[in-house]
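User: What would this chain look like folded?
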Amino acid sequence: MRKDFFSSTPLKTPWTVSSDQARAIRLAALARQALIAEAELTPKPGLVDRRGTGAHSDLSLAIMTRSARAIEPYLCEMALISGRNYPSQPLRERLAAIGREAEHAMLKATSGSNAHKGAIWILGLLTSAAAMQDEDLAPASTITGTAKRIASFGDRATPRLVSHGDLVANKYGVAGARGEALGGFPHVVEIGLPILHSRRASGATETVARLDTLLGIMSCLDDTCLLYRGGEEALVTAKAGTAAVKSAGGSGTTLGKQRLQRLDHRLLELGVSPGGSGDLLAATLFLDAVERGENEVQADRSGSEEIYGAD
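Assistant: Here's the prediction, encoded as structure tokens.
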């Protein structure tokens, strides 16, 4: 199925894409576009963007883009098997198996770099949940509620592997990616989407709206990527820095820009990156497009628009 849907070589026999297949293709494409838009958004503190590698030595914008494209077919498969289905133990385990295949494809495309392991978990759940809805314009809260029910089932097919996020979650008593899913993605529904919508409504450019959304998520999330690489100092630094940008009026003001730059420099000094927040920004962009019935996530324009509008 993946080969036929995404091959650039036309099929030799006539065929028709079913409505379920078309929906799965659309959802997977939105997920891929959301991941690329998040990666390209500039300037992000500590993260890969158009300027460079951020705090990473093994990632780049090109690698992030290759990774997003490599996992798209697997997200499509997750959506396809979820259509006309419901959360259950067997489905959860099928999704987990496809997710492991997606991780292998990601590592192959990136020569071993972990570009999107967390995003595969997050967007895998959300594309599956979105495919289950009766209506294409289902509210984000309905989709995340369904994703929560899917995540509530364990994966019995393989022994439980302990990830970096799991280690950090246990050490510091934070939720981590699994806890975020089991909570119904509160940092997306209660923080990310409201900030994105309000900043757009205020007249901010899309770049500023997305940057402020990322900063809003960072200000509240106990990001396990920060904790794993830099401990509590990194998390406290990130939260304090985002609060400073917010108090300056956001990333669209002159003072906010200066404070965002200061935060970026500090995270680079610490060698840390808020990767969990980046994944949740991608999830926010994905759900924003889904609930509005869009056929594509607007591409990032950080390099072509005026990033910082008038004060």
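The mean pLDDT is 91. If you want, I can go into more detail on any region.
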